Each structure stands twice: as structure tokens, then as C-alpha cells.
Please model this.
Amino acid sequence: MKIKIGPFGPISDTTRYEPYDTALPEIFEDIKLIILKAIPDTSVEHVGSSSIPGIGGRNVVDIAIPCKLEMHDVIRIRLKTLGFEDSPFPHYLPLLVASAVSNGRSYPILLYVIDPKNKTYQQWIQFRDYMRLHSDDAHAYDKVKRQAIADGHVEDEAYQKAKAPFLTRQINKIQKGEY
Model:
């Protein structure tokens, strides 16, 4: 699959649920190759719902580049030469955005350059790895996401809050090894 990195698409005020797109793993791998060509010897991790087969949602490709803090600015500058740009919306972590365009379809990308010791990053990886191995819990998370939208939690903050109890329980379960 050939992709191009382009500008981040229009921002919607509401969240829509979309079924899992089976093209997402290949889209991520293509983005990863583009990044690694520009920044060799970098770890590029697929995180978020799109990294877990079968979980629908916004079909956003969430990417984390874990690296030491002193490398963040250098890596962000290189990523901007590829077409990534600073996020136009507020976020609790520094964020770059872009779109991957493939076969006439645009896939939003949210990219985090983050310290590998950051608790949020570590939880993303733990959650992703756990959900990939536990399809019943992955399906339960997909149901939570669909229900949040069905219940009218379509603004991003409300959508995140509606998912939070499930996510907190799962992270606690994972960290305690209760599975």
C-alpha cells in the first residue's frame, strides 16, 4: 500500500463510531516506514484503539515515538519535514498531527513524541498488548465505545469521560496481573 502524509483533515466537534478498519495495520506500517526512513534507529509504536484488531472508534492512527527528552525537539523537527504539524487543538500531551492518504481515503494521525518512562506511554503499551491477547476484553471495550456514542457522549471530552471507568478498571487489572 502506498500512502502520502498530508495535512490533518477538518476537525469535527463530535465523535463518531466507525467499525474497525482492517487497513489500519498496513496504514500504520507504511507510516512507520516513512518515519524510519527519515529518522533511523527510532522506535515507532502503534497505540490506541486502531492498534487493537476488532476495536472500532474514530479510526485514528495513534502513534508514539518513545525517546529521551533531549531528543524530542530534534525528532519533532524531522517529523515536521515529513508533513506533520503541531496540533490545532488542545491536548494534555504535546501532539503532532497529519493525515495518511491511501486509495482516496484519509486517515487522521495523532503522533506523540514521548519519554519511554512516561506513565501514560507505559499504560498505552500495556493496554494494547493485553487487549491484543484478550479478545473478550477487547470486544467489551468496543461495546463501551459504541454505547458512549449511543448515549449521546459525542463531544470529545464527554466521550473520553464515558470510556474512563472501563479504561481505569482494565489498567488496574493489567497492572495487578489479575487476568
Summary: The first strand starts at residue 4 and ends at 6. The helical segments are 24-38, 72-81, 119-133, 135-150, 156-176. DSSP finds five helices and six strands in the chain. The first helix runs from residue 24 to 38.
